[in-house]
Amino acid sequence: MNPTRIVIIGGVAGGASAAARARRHSENVHITLVERGPDVSFANCGLPYHIGGEIPDRGELAIQTPAGLRALLNLDVRTLTEATAINRQRREVTVRSLADGTTTVLPYDKLILSPGASPLRPPLPGIESPRIHTLRNLEDMDRIKAAAAQATSIAIIGAGFIGLEMAEQLHALGKQVALVELLPQVLPQLDPEMTRPLEQALRDKGVRLILGDGIKSFQPAADHLDLVLKSGTTLPADLVILSIGVRPESGLARDAGLELGPRGHIRVDPWQVTSDPNIYAVGDACETADPILGQRAAIALGGPANRQGRIAADRIFLGEKARPYPGSIGTAIVRVFDQTAGITGWSEARLKAEGVPYLTVTVNGSSHASYFPGAETITLKLLWSPDGRILGAQAVGKDGVDKRLDIIATAIRGRMSTDDLAQLELSYAPPFGNAKDVVNVAGFAAANIRDGLLVPVPELADAGAQIIDVRPAASAARQPVPGARNIPLSELRSRIGELDRSQPVFTICQMGKTSYFAARILANHGFDARSILGGAHHQL
Amino acid sequence: MNPTRIVIIGGVAGGASAAARARRHSENVHITLVERGPDVSFANCGLPYHIGGEIPDRGELAIQTPAGLRALLNLDVRTLTEATAINRQRREVTVRSLADGTTTVLPYDKLILSPGASPLRPPLPGIESPRIHTLRNLEDMDRIKAAAAQATSIAIIGAGFIGLEMAEQLHALGKQVALVELLPQVLPQLDPEMTRPLEQALRDKGVRLILGDGIKSFQPAADHLDLVLKSGTTLPADLVILSIGVRPESGLARDAGLELGPRGHIRVDPWQVTSDPNIYAVGDACETADPILGQRAAIALGGPANRQGRIAADRIFLGEKARPYPGSIGTAIVRVFDQTAGITGWSEARLKAEGVPYLTVTVNGSSHASYFPGAETITLKLLWSPDGRILGAQAVGKDGVDKRLDIIATAIRGRMSTDDLAQLELSYAPPFGNAKDVVNVAGFAAANIRDGLLVPVPELADAGAQIIDVRPAASAARQPVPGARNIPLSELRSRIGELDRSQPVFTICQMGKTSYFAARILANHGFDARSILGGAHHQL
């Protein structure tokens, strides 16, 4: 029997999706949407871009207003209203108006929790300074935009997705930007070597990059704030953006006795049902399945939140016919000036930390046919299990990174193998793609490793003494590989006598392709030949 | 045991790939590459773009020279040399030099045929005119480029991929371009309604589009050629490009008694082996599997040719370890001025002609977040079998078409379902993709059809009498839908009494989303409500 009263806590991505989907199922159900902030259904992923002016019109970010949701979806929208308690036995939620403090009790047949996650604010000395901001909603955005207009120097703490977007956008406003990250790399979701082009892009633009350092304290000065770092460095800033991560807003659920995961996320089944069959949870506050390795995952991203909201509503109205949520693989992407980087599935660092057996290769390819104007190099790292199943991928480059990530995200969802990647038939005309796309090439390389044709060397630092740079002499001279001797590929067969057969030969080139060719020649002549992955483009 | 002599007939995509891959397997095998033309391994997909000047440097198209292949791959390259006969019993190929007419007999252990396909030249009156050109190789390109420089008016016969690329490029040179197509649409590989934006783009640029008409004869005039069309129209042109299709160059194989398919393509097994175990065939001249419906297919495209060449060489050297070619799904794409269109898998027309049961939906989405500058609309048509497996897709739009086709091409390769599409976790940040990408939306729509939430109307012409335009009044007035009454979505609930319950209601909007919302409201109020797919954007 269909419910007559649905209450939804949280009116942005997951909550708004659940409300809309529920209304498609029924015109008769009363749907109450409770939101603590003044806004519903806004484009939270767009906030940095309005601060930087790339989205000039603030109105673009308000996908729906409360009045719009009332008119289009016939919702009972209650903004500036906080849910304070759930009475599971009586199926009631108590909500409090932030405007006048009055409390109301809302009865429900089904309750959907979409409270989201809130930015971390660690209890550091000086953290209460009004110069320190986090970015979660339109109000935060407005405050930061106003403060940035008065600021000359801005420090961003945390170089994850939001930190990087903010660095780019605040630089675009002409600010002196410093980016501080506790780990020795930006974008810690990715393996470190894949983030180097982002770091270079930041440095090239004049962003001060402080890696492997954290905040000890914030010291107020007359007209600015001094950030005292763990290294002892003092970094003055007019404005500080804190973007070091989020924690799930699961207090309401916890207080109601709902089951939580180890890091405080609300536990749900594949239909987003919590440990109480009348309560659902969606979005950043809940746990989900990791379909790649069968573990649990918590992914704070808009795409999963939207789809989970839809599934919760389907489960309520379609029952057994509703399709389950298959879990999240964590596909994510960020643009940093002219570079784009992203990930789908597991990183090498995570696989290593969990002791999961894997293989990996890194290849370069062209965003579209290299003979057609505008082609840019994409570096693609692929990770797979010993049985060939794809576990993850990372890509970085100036164009076409999103497409390659999406192709591999699709392949992961389909539990496809590296051989499947090799044989993907992707769209090819010179302005788009390649006869052998970089995704195919990654699949070829994986097959070559399995078949013993490619002995890969992931890092130049791992190479032994005999490194041969097989690029043309001019390229090798322009950008020398430390410790390498130059023998261009075209001369390799005739100069093979110059090499020492008693020790391995490590070949390197510009893109990692010619070095493979060279290693094949040498291996077929009886050498222990290994190819340094990604070439000088990736290694230097 | 490894072969000692490999002969390859045809030195472009498939042949060059086979040669390169064979050399990676062995330094000891003698590889002879026989090519009828003067060039090997050139970028045949790039030819139109050098004619139009978008690839200014001709040298970019010569990926490898014969001398380069000799130096890098130690190949015995014989250009301007034609294979005239195969003696299968003696394992010998007879080749003839086009330079001096001498013949040579080349013994082989393994023979790889990569002869390609040649442009059709139907025996029409006047076809021998030197003003009529086809485009296959660099020599053709040079001839057309020289002739175009002297021409004012150019007629292109055949509006497939090459015809469309040539129309765009010759228009860029400032020529008066007419494009003649026998069928009543451009790009006959796609369903007609998906090609409308291309036709509009051509007309907007001033290309004269003559659809549903063919050539009766070519009549030489003093300083031009008159094309007499079947309709009676006479079309004068200084230069004619014939691009009506290709036929496989399988004469050598046929004369040698190799098994051919119904349309003259060389029959091969999944490892590219012909009916003679020592002869392989790859590329445009051979048949392959259709992995979608288990039929045979012949796909004249560069990607498959390259991968087949690799597989033939792997089979020769790796034997049982070599992975089979999984067949071709026919992914293809074309840019026509600011529009891009493409296909992967089966079209509706083909499914209908073969009597294969299918379902279909057409949706619109945005190339990236609609609130971020530069977003363009993508129209995506999805086809699937009653059990949910994806059979094909077509897309058209100004940006991001290649990405969506590649995602679905990957899903087809993985035999994935529409529910899988709904749950794809694609990369999303405002400059890239969407929280709910158009690919997800197509999956949602398929689920809605299955679950009875969406009753789709593919064509406005199929709608009954009661059509309701649910756009805001201003939009509806600006671009009226013939026969429709305007009731904006926000007024629908209060004005529901104005509708006639005794007959179906057909809803339409701008993009096909709001009309679905409206149909859900009406259906939940007991109406027979159906949504017209793709909205005014697609239908008008």
Give a topology summary.
The structure is a homodimer of 540-residue chains.
Chain A: E1 5-9, H1 13-25, E2 30-34, E3 40-42, H2 47-51, E4 62-64, H3 66-73, E5 76-78, E6 81-87, E7 92-97, E8 103-107, E9 110-113, E10 117-119, E11 132-133, H4 138-150, E12 153-157, H5 161-172, E13 176-181, H6 192-204, E14 208-211, E15 215-220, E16 225-229, E17 234-237, E18 239-242, E19 246-248, H7 251-255, E20 279-281, E21 288-289, E22 296-297, H8 302-318, E23 332-336, E24 339-345, H9 348-354, E25 359-366, E26 377-384, E27 390-397, H10 401-413, H11 418-422, H12 438-450, E28 456-457, E29 467-469, H13 473-478, E30 484-486, H14 489-492, E31 505-508, H15 514-524, E32 529-532, H16 535-539
Parallel strand pairs in A: 1-2, 1-9, 2-5, 9-20, 11-18, 12-13, 12-18, 13-14, 28-32, 29-30, 29-31, 31-32
Antiparallel strand pairs in A: 3-4, 6-7, 7-8, 10-19, 15-16, 16-17, 21-22, 23-24, 24-27, 25-26, 26-27
Structure report:
The structure is a homodimer of 540-residue chains. The first copy, chain A, is α/β, with parallel strands linked by helices and 540 residues long. The first copy, chain A, has four domains: 5-116 and 247-321, FAD/NAD(P)-binding domain; 132-244, FAD/NAD(P)-binding domain (3-Layer(bba) Sandwich); 338-450, 3-Layer(bba) Sandwich (FAD/NAD(P)-binding domain), CATH 3.50.50.60; 456-539, Oxidized Rhodanese, domain 1. Helices cover 28% and strands 26% of the residues of chain A. The first copy, chain A, has a five-stranded parallel beta sheet with strand order 5-2-1-9-20. Chain A has a five-stranded parallel beta sheet with strand order 11-18-12-13-14, covered by helices on one side. A five-stranded antiparallel beta sheet of chain A has the order 23-24-27-26-25, sandwiched between helices. The longest helix of chain A is centred in the middle third of the chain and has 17 residues, at 302-318. Chain A is globular, with a radius of gyration of 26 Å. The mean pLDDT of chain A is 96. Chains A and B meet through helix 1, helix 8, strand 23, strand 24 and helix 10 of A and helix 1, helix 8, strand 23, strand 24 and helix 10 of B.
